[in-house]
Amino acid sequence: MKLTHLFALSSLLLPVFAAPEPPTEAIEERAKYGADTKYFHEPGGNDELGHYDIRYFSGAPVTYEERGDTLLHLIRSYLTVFREKNVETWIAHGTLLGWWWNGKIMPWDWDLDTQVSASTLTWLGENLNMTFHNYTSVNEDGTSETREFLLDINPNHVERIRGDGQNVIDARWIDVRNGLFIDITGLSETNPSTQPGIWSCKNFHRYRTRDLYPLRETVFEGVPALVPYSFDRILTEEYSARALTKTMHEGHRWMPEQKEWVKQEPIHSKKPPRARAHVPRSVQAEENPKSGLRNLLRVL
User: What ranges does the record give for the region Disordered, renumbered to this chain (predicted)?
Assistant: First the structure.
């Protein structure tokens, strides 16, 4: 995929050995959970409040523009630091779908998804848990900005089964300014004797070894990245073929001339919109999609 590098990037790793002291409000909020087994906590369970780490949530969701800017620096910093540390990771789920379309984050996304192997996850827990990372981006006009991120490894990552479902996320890369994050999940062969070569996370996503490896070198949001070898099979199995052709979603339209998803002005209706709880993004299958995967394969 041919993408223009818009930024010159550099990062500095600053290890620490203790978790940040959460604000008083967060301590009181955590106290409500009592003996809750969940490690990562969010201030709410919908799209407005379900994608912030409670320790760094200011009390109000960020704007559409700030969310996009935060996610952009989250993924650039994450991919850059992990590559500098020679830690293998690849983009997954909706983040991978964004890469398929134009090598960018879907503008309606609230967080990002990456994956690592379970052995890599163990190494991260032993060597980089609770480390802060300063990341500086230099813009084309010469201005620069440094942001700070926390790598937090869920201690429950050692259990490779779903359990009570409260700890399916194994680690997070968190922007300490507002609490937005990247979800990091580990993959392992949980049943190597009966299902060799089948890798799974704790949320029941399964992958074949030949679909994951060898990982493909590419570019995502202007920085080097890795994607699974059979990204096409993975995306269609997870989202259906319709996800690769649908040009209207979440109030955005795909503009082929610009190769961008553009936010559409809402159409005002007399009927108030129905409240929706947060659910994973899904799309309906289409028997005869208008185009296929060959469009992407031509540029790889």
Answer: 263-290
Instruction: Kindly report the pTM of this predicted structure.
Output: 0.78
Identify the pLDDT of residue 18: 38
| Crossing angle for the helix pair 93-102 and 231-239, to the nearest 10 degrees | 120
d(CA 118, CA 156): 12
pLDDT digits (tens, 9 = 90+) for 263-275: 998 765 555 545 4
Q: Sheet containing 8-14: which strands, arranged edge to edge?
A: 8-14, 131-138, 144-153, 171-175, 181-187, 112-117, 90-91
Q: CB under 8 Å to 76, separation ≥6 — which residues? A: 7, 9, 135, 137, 221, 222, 223
Q: How far apart are CA 73 and CA 31, in angstroms?
A: 32
Q: Domain spans of the chain?
A: 8-268+275-297
Structure tokens at 14: 């600053």
Q: Which amino acid is at 185?
A: T
CA–CA dist 123, 90 (Å, integer) = 16
User: Could you tell me the CA-to-CA distances from 202 to 78, 233, 274, 279 in Å, in that order?
Assistant: 22, 20, 31, 17
List all residues 6 or more positions away from 154 whose beta carbon is below 8 Å from its beta carbon. Answer: 39, 40, 167, 169, 170, 171, 172
Residue 164: phi, psi to the nearest 5?
-85, 5
Residues 6+ apart with CB under 8 A from 246: 283, 286
CA 169 – CA 164 distance, rounded (Å): 12
* Ramachandran class of 210: left when φ > 0, alpha when ψ lies in -120 to 50, beta otherwise: alpha
Nearest to 82 by CA among 138, 111, 123, 41: 123
When the pLDDT of each residue in the chain is averaged and rounded to a whole number, the result is 83
User: What percentage of the chain reaches a pLDDT higher than 90?
Assistant: 70
Token pair in block for residue 161: 């089964």
